[in-house]
Design a protein that fits this description.
This protein has no helices and 3 strands. The chain has 44 residues and is an all-beta fold. It has a domain at 15-44. It is globular and about 30 Å long. The model has no long low-confidence stretch (mean pLDDT 83).
């Protein structure tokens, strides 16, 4: 999936951006959100 598919027509997105590296989105894994670029993880 390309990044442009994540954005709505108004430029917003439903995904949360990584607070550490800021240019990647956090992947939702059910019990956690994870950044594949820097490894940042938020547990639910």
């Amino acid at each position: 999936m390309a990044h442009y598919e994540l954005y709505n027509d108004d430029g917003s997105t439903d995904r949360e951006q990584c607070p550490r590296c800021a240019d990647a989105f956090l992947a939702d894994h059910g019990d956690r959100s994870h950044c594949g670029k820097c490894g940042y993880t938020e547990w639910e």
